[in-house]
């Protein structure tokens, strides 16, 4: 297949229509979630029931074995109501995809009883591990682990010291093996529960660990499911830009509501039109990315383009929501209104390291363009 294959041709698991129900529930709880800095239990339950956590889990384990295109569309729908809910939905799906690199016995331990298990990920190698009989012992503290409040398993990266070069590995731990410290205090994406996870000298058996290189290269020795064999670079910042697109659309909707019935100035009209085009362009760029992933078009050029698209979209969305706040005027900054919340959420999402030009596309896209 080419990277231009129609996304509508991808297998449909039914996640998109169910996401509309999650959007409606998330909208009811969005203001409270922002105030309380956590998702309501009803919303977490709705994410589970909708199938976000099982989206990339193998069908043989009761999972949906879905596509990146379908997940992206569903997350954007949820993001129109609550960016934090969409962020957790996206991370729940992608974290399960990371966990699929574990040995088969690990798959059974995590998903044997339910494909809807919530897995969270600490990607930076912030822990230290030592080799022991049957596995490793792990200690460390991982910051910004989104969804930590309701996580049932955590997939955490640590460095294993040995006689040779240190090796980075991922370790899967059940909830009883780690502690959550409520350290998340960002003014945006408040309800993502992106807290710190602490592990203190915990034994991790061999079947709950794998070499980080497997995730980076997309090499999976234990699963032939297409979505489990995707290079990390190809995914790029997709996990984080998709909730931001939904939130930006939510900001546009809130701005239109605020301006309805008012006399529209020329400058406000220009801001509104430009912002709507910027949001739509970000959505189209992300559709390019998901087509690459679902069509398995993992050329260096297309993978670098995926990184570029995500970083560029983040910058564009920040500009767009700023213009929407300007267009709405003073009313757009009302704490009782949704627009200022979406504005904060988009800015917060865009600050993620995976969406920064200097840490993503700037490293790879020039080389792809120049053929070096």
UniProtKB/TrEMBL annotation:
<dbReference type="InterPro" id="IPR046373">
    <property type="entry name" value="Acyl-CoA_Oxase/DH_mid-dom_sf"/>
</dbReference>
<feature type="domain" description="Acyl-CoA dehydrogenase C-terminal">
    <location>
        <begin position="239"/>
        <end position="356"/>
    </location>
</feature>
<dbReference type="InterPro" id="IPR013107">
    <property type="entry name" value="Acyl-CoA_DH_C"/>
</dbReference>
<keyword id="KW-0560">Oxidoreductase</keyword>
<keyword id="KW-0378">Hydrolase</keyword>
<dbReference type="InterPro" id="IPR037069">
    <property type="entry name" value="AcylCoA_DH/ox_N_sf"/>
</dbReference>
<dbReference type="InterPro" id="IPR009100">
    <property type="entry name" value="AcylCoA_DH/oxidase_NM_dom_sf"/>
</dbReference>
<dbReference type="Pfam" id="PF08028">
    <property type="entry name" value="Acyl-CoA_dh_2"/>
</dbReference>
<dbReference type="InterPro" id="IPR036250">
    <property type="entry name" value="AcylCo_DH-like_C"/>
</dbReference>
<protein>
    <submittedName>
        <fullName>Hydrolase</fullName>
    </submittedName>
</protein>
<dbReference type="GO" id="GO:0016787">
    <property type="term" value="F:hydrolase activity"/>
</dbReference>
């Amino acid at each position: 297949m080419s990277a231009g294959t129609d996304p509508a041709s991808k297998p449909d698991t039914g996640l998109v229509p169910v996401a509309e129900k999650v959007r409606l529930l998330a909208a009811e709880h969005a203001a409270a979630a922002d105030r309380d800095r956590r998702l309501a239990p009803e919303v977490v339950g709705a994410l589970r029931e909708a199938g976000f956590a099982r989206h990339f889990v193998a069908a043989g384990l009761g999972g949906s074995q879905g596509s990146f295109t379908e997940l992206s569309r569903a997350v954007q729908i949820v993001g129109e109501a609550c960016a934090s809910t969409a962020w957790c939905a996206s991370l729940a799906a992608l974290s399960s995809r990371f966990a699929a690199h574990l040995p088969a016995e690990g798959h059974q331990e995590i998903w044997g009883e339910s494909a809807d298990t919530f897995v969270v990920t600490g990607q930076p190698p912030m822990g230290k591990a030592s080799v022991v009989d049957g596995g490793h012992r792990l200690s460390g503290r991982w910051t910004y682990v989104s969804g930590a409040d309701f996580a049932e398993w955590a997939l955490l990266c640590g460095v294993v010291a040995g006689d040779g070069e240190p090796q980075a590995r991922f370790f899967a731990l059940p909830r009883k093996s780690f502690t959550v410290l409520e350290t998340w205090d960002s003014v945006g994406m408040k309800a993502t529960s992106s807290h710190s996870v602490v592990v203190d000298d915990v034994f991790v058996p061999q079947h709950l660990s794998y070499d980080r290189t497997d995730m980076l290269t997309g090499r999976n020795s234990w699963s032939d499911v297409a979505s489990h064999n995707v290079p990390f670079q190809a995914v790029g910042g997709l996990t984080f830009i998709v909730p931001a697109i939904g939130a930006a659309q939510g900001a546009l909707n809130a701005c239109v509501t605020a301006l309805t019935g008012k006399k529209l100035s020329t400058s406000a009209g220009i801001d509104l039109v430009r912002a709507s085009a910027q949001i739509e362009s970000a959505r189209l760029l992300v559709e390019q990315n998901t087509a690459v992933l679902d069509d398995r078009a993992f050329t260096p050029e297309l993978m670098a383009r995926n990184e570029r698209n995500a970083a560029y979209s983040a910058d564009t969305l920040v500009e767009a929501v700023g213009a929407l706040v300007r267009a709405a005027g003073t009313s757009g900054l009302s704490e009782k209104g949704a627009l200022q919340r979406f504005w904060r959420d988009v800015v917060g999402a865009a600050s993620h390291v995976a969406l920064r030009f200097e840490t993503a596309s700037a490293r790879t896209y020039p080389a792809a363009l120049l053929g070096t």
